[in-house]
């Protein structure tokens, strides 16, 4: 059964609560009654200072840093490369081709290398150790062979190198690879140095040789004139006898 008349209320409800700013007297009261924590009885400067815990350096970390120092000390060429992820087979193949030219691949960590370089003469290499890096080291300056191998490995990008205690950029390494070998440079230097003394010697000998030739020609002329005079005298003596 439903009633014959139903009242249904429609529309929004009356909102009786609106935000209203706090009265300034109440604000003053709240500020005055704000809780202030009491000061400690003993000043902080009078308390015993905390003992700073000094972290002991790990022995394995020191071993790795010593190995990095030996790498920079015992090798004439140390190249810094950016290493991107690549399959293990390609890594083994790259190391095999580099080992043919007596170039070794060293995987290093930045937290191991950076403290070593910051205290050495190679500190200018620090900006290169940002991402994941590897070192290509060799006791010989095999820059040309290294660039030839890295040309076929796009995942390894050359950033810079230290060759014979000289820090070079990528462009500097490429220019160094274009230089002739040490034996050829030494031969060219010896040839250039021996050319100047030979030219000087020839210039110094030209005057005396020319003077000797003139004297020989003068003596020959005098000898010819003497022979001619003696022949004329013999003919006159023969005519007088007849």
UniProtKB/TrEMBL annotation:
Keywords: Mitochondrion, Ribonucleoprotein, Ribosomal protein, Transit peptide. Gene3D superfamilies: 3.30.70.1730. Signal peptide: none annotated. The keyword Mitochondrion applies. Pfam families: Ribosomal_L10 (PF00466). It comes from the Eukaryota. One of its GO terms (cellular component) is mitochondrial inner membrane. The keyword Cell cycle does not apply. It is found in: Mitochondrion. PANTHER family: 39S RIBOSOMAL PROTEIN L10, MITOCHONDRIAL. Belongs to the universal ribosomal protein uL10 family. This is Large ribosomal subunit protein uL10m. The gene is Mrpl10.
């Amino acid at each position: 059964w439903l009633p014959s008349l139903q009242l249904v209320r429609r529309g929004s409800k009356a909102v009786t609560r609106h935000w209203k700013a706090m009265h300034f007297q109440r604000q003053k009261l709240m500020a005055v009654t704000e809780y202030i924590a009491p000061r400690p009885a003993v000043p902080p400067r009078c308390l015993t200072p905390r003992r700073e815990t000094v972290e002991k350096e790990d022995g394995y970390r020191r071993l790795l840093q010593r190995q990095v120092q030996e790498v920079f000390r015992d090798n004439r060429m140390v190249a810094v490369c950016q290493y991107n992820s690549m399959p293990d087979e390609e890594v083994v193949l790259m190391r095999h081709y580099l080992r043919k030219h007596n170039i070794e691949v060293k995987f290093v960590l930045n937290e191991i290398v950076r403290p070593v370089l910051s205290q050495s003469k190679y500190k200018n290499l620090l900006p290169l150790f940002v991402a994941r890096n590897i070192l290509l080291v060799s006791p010989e300056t095999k820059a040309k062979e290294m660039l030839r191998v890295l040309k076929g490995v796009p995942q390894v990008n050359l950033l810079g190198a230290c060759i014979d205690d000289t820090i070079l950029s990528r462009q500097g390494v490429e220019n160094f690879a274009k230089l002739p070998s040490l034996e050829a440079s030494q031969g060219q230097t010896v040839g250039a140095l021996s050319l100047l003394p030979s030219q000087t010697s020839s210039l110094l000998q030209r005057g005396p040789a020319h003077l000797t030739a003139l004297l020989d020609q003068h003596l020959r002329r005098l000898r010819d004139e003497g022979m001619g005079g003696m022949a004329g005298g013999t003919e006159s003596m023969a005519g007088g006898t007849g």
